[in-house]
Amino acid sequence: MTPALVPPPAPAPGTRARLGAWAELLRVSALFTVPGDALAGAAASGAGTSRTTALAVGCSLCLYEAGMALNDWADRAEDAAERPHRPLPSGRITAPAALLAASALTAAGLALAARAGRPALLLASALAGTVWAYDLRLKHTPWGPLAMGAARGLDVLLGAAAQPGARTRTALAAAGALTAHTTAVTAVSRHEVRGGSTSAPLAALAASTALGAALVRGALGRTRNTPRTGHSAPVPPAPPAGRVAAAAPGPPGTTLAAALAAGYALSAGRPFLHAALNPSPQLTGRAVGGGIRAMIPLQGALAARTGALGAALATAALAPLAKALSRRVNPT
């Protein structure tokens, strides 16, 4: 007689609650916005993705989560007054445990970067230093938003530096795009608890609209322009009478890049506009969450414009997952 299959025991309520607390502390719904940094950087490097791309993604995830844990550890006194429901002030996670997690995740991220090579380790070290400086010192200074933006830019460069023989400088434009967007979102997040700011979401709206429009124009421009080879492009023969010549196809990824760039501008701009029209804490918080998730189509557009269709599609596929999980775990 075949023995009956016994299902594994369900986690005890205490275990489930602890896992939920750690998911909240680490903002797991925002994790889906991280892999696209390394993928966009690798695509912009000209070397393409490789085994070391996975190491760069793993490093990025570890350092991002380290920043989340360290953020709540550093803000535990402030959160006790303004956000007592968070894991640390509510007592669901202890402060020493959060600090230990931040330290361990930082070490794990640097170890992964070391396996990807010296250039990747240098970028990861700069990224880790920026994350810790932001959480412990710069967050509540005028340099806070720029420091957070710089962390995203360094994350993109990390993805480029991890590729063998890569040209990291070619990823500077992609890094600058993520830096600009993240700086704007971070400026809005400063008003998430109390609301009341119209200028911050308006500035973020202007930045995301300008960035999205520039990416769309760049993608469509590549479709219309001929390659710059230093020679005149050959003139195609005239089509037979009665037939219409088909439009010359653009470089791979231009249509996808334009679509993702437009999607980025829309997904970021709408919540920013709502927060500007009604700067309540609720709408400001939604604008921050929307701005965080909007990084995914932005990363996808940056990858697609280099012709890296696989990286662009893989990044874009993370958007619905991030949105679904954000309904259960607040990304901010």
TrEMBL record:
Protein localization: Membrane
Region feature (Disordered): 222-249
Membrane topology category: Multi-pass membrane protein
Highest taxon above the source species: Bacteria
Pfam families the UniProt entry points to: UbiA (PF01040)
Alphabetic keyword roster: Membrane, Transmembrane, Transmembrane helix
Protein's UniProt name: UbiA family prenyltransferase
Organism: Streptomyces evansiae
